[in-house]
Structures are given as C-alpha cells and as structure tokens.
Design goal:
The chain has about 130 residues and is mainly β. The chain has no helices and ten strands. The protein has strands at about 5, 10-15, 20-25, 35-40, 45-50, 55-60, 70-75, 80-85, 90-100, 125-130. About 30% of the residues are buried.
C-alpha cells in the first residue's frame, strides 16, 4: 500500500524554524487530504495541521496556529509543514498521513481525529532545545 515518507526533522533552538516534507507515491494527490500529526514520548498523538488541495482548504490546531504553515506541491506529490517560532513543547516525532475523505479538513469534528487517516510512515524527529 501507499506509505508516506516524512523527512526534514532535526535539532533546532527555540525560536528557530524548520521545514518538514511529506512525500507520497502511487496515488493521485488531489484525491486525498493530507494531515500532519505529532507524538511526544509518553504522550498521545495529536493532530497538527491538514490540507486538501482539491478543495483548497487548510486547518491548524490552536497550539500551532500563526506559527506553522502547511502547503503542497502537487507536481512533486509533496506536502510541506513550515514551522517557525519553535518552542520546546513542539518536540515530538512528526508523522503525515492521507485521508480519502477530501473534505475532512473542513471539519473540526472529527477533523484530524477521523479514522480515515492512514498510510503512516515512520515519522521524523523534531527536537527543540531551550
């Protein structure tokens, strides 16, 4: 099955910036919404952001609104998460996943909690030092 590959993680100082990439293959990009998620050690996974290129819609969790920007390059089948003003609490493994319900980003409920998100990769680690 299709598996999304997240990359671009690393170590960054608080207040710095980092851009994550989510690359996909073997499916039509416009047929899916793409979500970014993160999970810190010992904590539950949380949704971060969502994008649907077919509906030109985006969604951001309150914890990252104004600091993170999600975008897509359809030609490269890649979604980006530009993170700025990073905080130590942003430290986590970041994952991306695809959802065939292309309108999911328009709904806070279920939104990023929708069970339709799948094709998980191994994620990429982001560490923000204080």
């Amino acid at each position: 099955e299709v598996q999304l590959q997240a990359s671009g993680g690393g170590l960054v100082q608080a207040g710095g910036s980092l851009r994550l990439s989510c690359a996909a293959s073997e499916f039509t990009f416009d047929d899916y919404a793409i979500g970014w998620f993160r999970q810190a050690p010992g904590k539950e996974r949380e949704g971060v952001s969502c994008i649907s290129t077919s509906e030109s819609s985006t969604y951001y969790a309150d914890s990252v609104k104004g600091r993170f920007t999600i975008s897509a390059d359809n030609a490269k089948n890649t979604v980006y998460l530009q993170m700025s003003s990073l905080k130590p609490e942003d430290t986590a493994v970041y994952y991306c996943a695809a959802n065939p319900w292309v309108s999911v980003c328009d709904y806070e409920d279920p939104g990023l909690s929708d069970p339709g998100f799948g094709s998980w990769g191994q994620g990429t680690l982001v560490t923000v030092s204080s």
